[in-house]
Amino acid sequence: MDNSAQAAPQRSDQPDAVGERHRLAEVARYAITLDQSDPKLDLITTLAIQAVGAEIGGVSIVHQSQIWLPSRIGVDARHVPRAGSFCTWVVGAASEADFFEVEDARADPRFSANPLVLHAPHYLHYAAVPLHGARGYLLGTLWVMGTQARRLAAQQVLMLQGMAGLVVDSLELRYCSDVTGMANRTVFLHHLQLGLQQSAQPQVLVGFVDLMGFRRLNDVFGRESGNELLRLLGHRLGEWAGAHNLVAHLGADKFAFALFGEHAGHVARLDGLKQLISEPFTLAQGGAQVLHARIGVNYHDIAVPGSAAALLDAADTAASAINGSYLRSTVKEYGVELLARSQMVFELQAALDGDVRHGALAVHYQPQLNYGEGRLIGMEALVRWQHPQRGLVLPQHFIGLAENTGKIYQLDLAVLRQVCQDLRGWRDAGLPVVPVSLNFSRRTLLHPQVLGDLKLLLRRFGIDGHMLELEVTESQLLDTLELVAPRVAAFRALGLRIAVDDFGTGYSNLDAISSFPFDRLKVDRQFVNGVAGSERVAGLFKLIQGIAELFKAELLCEGLEHEADLAWLAARGAHCVQGWYFSKARTADSIVRVLGCMRQRCAAAAPLTPPQLRQLLDNC
Q1: pLDDT at position 68, please?
Q2: What is the C-alpha R_g of the chain?
Q3: What is the pLDDT of residue 603?
Q4: Mean pLDDT of 385-390
Q5: 185-334 has which CATH code?
Q6: Within 10 Å of residue 175's Cβ, how many Cβ atoms?
Q7: What Å distances lie between residue 61 and 164, 179, 186, CA to CA?
Q8: What are the sequence ranges of the domains in the chain?
Q9: What is the reported pTM?
Q10: 13 or 314: which leads in pLDDT
Q11: 408-428 and 588-602 helices cross at what angle (nearest 10)?
């Protein structure tokens, strides 16, 4: 094989002297960091060194203006310069060549002053292959060095390039997003931490980007269209951030960025970010699509020590605190008002993990009654957080927090576990157990593990599926019926009853609910509370009652609080109710007393009247 014919076209020419000072100044902005080596990469590096007869080598991960060595053989900290690295020049030439070689660094003005060249053992030869990912991103370099000036043979170049392919595969598995090819969370946090320690800039702005509406696009047009959109957005973010800032794909529809420099110019830049995200994305399948984002940001002075992970978490918290629609992109800054929220997120996770110092979740139960027959027909499980300082925290203060921070599945599963445990305890005590209804979030309802976890809990506590009722909100049905319906069918196959919750609030059409088998229709409290005194509310209630009769479903009226409304419902034959008129939500211990009272009254011949039923619950 002719050496010059194969290798010459791949060599990078030396730059002319005119631009040399400018390039050296630019090189000085790059930084290198050392930490624990990656064993898999070390093996490939060792093979590369042996294959070409070099003495030292490594893998450099390039992320914007910084270089990281996750693999280095024969290199220690004193050998690695903070500026003017060989790898920096490879990055600059990577778009023009797929191989880079310095035959004698002493004769090359770019490297003659490099400490690796000036000081013993005086490395003179350098060869590197740029590492390009499958999506076209420059990941870094595989490089080798030796103390003898020389030129690699064509066969050695091919071997080094083959080794580089193995490095790319390893890097993409561990350090890159498999969808976009961008740096992942690990690389982003690594380089952000390095920037906090070494950047000459006075400040940094850390941002968290959460796309809104992406899941729906994925559901409608398919995963590949969703991946295509993520790649397009990643490209936009990279161009927007520029070469000396950081951008990463954190997974799913989440991205991160870090802008180094004065804060004064960031307002305009963030306006530009909102615009570029909201510009239409043209997809191969699905055409032009417009999405928006929740963008959380956190400002930090580099002179103050900081944690990269904490800064990103704060930006994430700011993004999750945005309660906006899908109509525009919104930016929210992390500040004092969110500090308490961050603390609450931490405490909630600790409570979910069983750390009693931060309280514990408790399940309360609100009775459901058929006052026409004078009996208890069910209970709804309602979660509370018993906090050591805040007292009893109601769900409206932490459920949304759990949903926005990805903790809702753990929370819903904790409630389900407690309900199964309580049902088993009541049954073992010989009490007349009734079905318990639970509310699952949409995320939990569609979680890939929920059916398996449910089966395990039913088996563990010996509970029949018909003792549980799953409440599916009307809005969940309308939002993603094609996804929810099959999942609910799987729950029904396990014996669970299905209730449509908050009915009347989502403006359902009959086509939607006709394709969704259910056992109970729960009328939202706004159509129950005050129904006796409002013709409009009464008319809407009659319409809902007719829908329940049409589908042969039990009608349960939520939010009953007044005797006048009870009389009106009785006249309409609506006997199944839930509300404060009969009982508030009760602790599990209180429910034991209620079930005990019910057991005693079951022996009586005559059913309880509504006043007697109310008095019994008051006294239990």
Answers
A1: 76
A2: 32
A3: 59
A4: 90
A5: 3.30.70.270
A6: 23
A7: 12, 19, 12
A8: 3-175, 185-334, 349-619
A9: 0.55
A10: 314
A11: 40
